[in-house]
Every structure is written in C-alpha cells, then in structure tokens.
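input
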Amino acid sequence: MSKHETITGYKFNILNEVVAEKDLFEDQTHAQVSENLFNLIQSSNKGVTIGLEGNWGSGKSTVINLLKDQLIEDKNQKAKFFMFDAWAHDGDPLRRIFLESLIKEMDPDGQDDYLLEIEKEITGRKKTVSVESKKSASQFGKLLSFVALTIPLGTALLGKVNYEIFKLPWSNDAGSIYWLFFLGLFFLFISIYFYRILVFYRGRG
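output
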C-alpha cells in the first residue's frame, strides 16, 4: 500500500475513561473490597484514616463509587460521604478549597450559622484584629500621684512638731535646727509647686 492510498473499511470506537458503577468481574473483587471497607467504617467508634492504593486503572475509583452507594443507602447513616478531587484543584490553595467544599456539602443551603462563620474565616471575608494595650501613667497622672503623696506627708510631719519648744533658727535662744518642722514645710512647698504645674497642664488640656 502506497502512502497516497487511504485506509477504508475500518471502524474505530473511542474509549472514554468512565468510572464503573457496578463490579462486572466474575469474582466481584471490587465489590468485596468495598464491602470490607464499609464494615470497617461501621465497626469503628472513632474516626479512621484508610488508604486505598493501586495502579492506574486498577479500579480504585470503582471501589469508592461502590462504597459511596453503600454509605448513602445505609439506614443508620453513621458516616457521611464526601468526595473531593484534589487533582481538579491542582495549583489552588488545597486546604481552603477542601474546607469550602466540605462546608457546602454539609450545609448546602447555608443555614448553619456556625459553619457560615468558619467559611468566612477561611475565605478571608472575616478578619480578626487583635489590639494589645499597655497601661501606663501619663505625665499628668504622675504629677497628681506625687502631689497626693507629699501633701499628707508634709502635714503629718508638721503635726509631729512640738511648737511649745520650737524656736526659729534666727531667734536668739534658738538651739539646733528642728529638722522635723523644715522637712514638713519642704514637702508642703513641693506640693504647692507641683499643684501649680497641674493647674497649668489642666489649663492647656
């Protein structure tokens, strides 16, 4: 046959890659694997992780389809079936896409407020802002605290002075300096000085 001649009389069928919904093999291998997985899930009281391994075309998707039908038809409804195709979302943020798909499967009508809040958080539509504040005294507060301390201190010291024997330093019969009196007087003058500063700050505010 030369290269210019055409091939005729042949019929070709295109084989599409479609997941089988029934196990057509005689020994029902896929159905048995699906049945074992179903029984394992039903007998587990806690969540379990099951890995299904096999070469391309070995029937993993068929087993999953058979298991899905069993879980959906189960009257006890112990497990909910949710299928997520990671290959279809290659390049997407997998964790976010997975959680979004799972929430839509669990609450298709968007009626669950708790799930809606979670969806807003993972999609970035809800932002949580943390504000950290530190307590510190202002300049005005520090001055006020100082005045509140010195006034009673000066008053208490002056109250301890025995004025019957007290003599001013410049008196002729004055003895040693009466430190108790002058310390009390010092604290009172300091209080008055800072009080004037407080009045000044209040006036500016």
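quick obs: The radius of gyration is 44 Å.
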